[in-house]
Amino acid sequence: MKAVVGDELTVKGRHQGDVERHGEIIEIHGHEGSPPYVVQWQDGHESVFFPSADTVASHKPARKRAKS
What we know:
mainly beta, five-stranded antiparallel sheet
């Protein structure tokens, strides 16, 4: 997986009844977008994360800067 800071992660549950986890990548410690990532999860906690096959990354488009 290759990612950039700001990408959103969704970790799908592996078993019936598991809830999805959602977070945002705030740091990348691997080479050229590779894991490990520091992720801030929806509940506010942060952790070092190595994605597995049940993880999906979504790229958020960069915000356009206002002209000054």
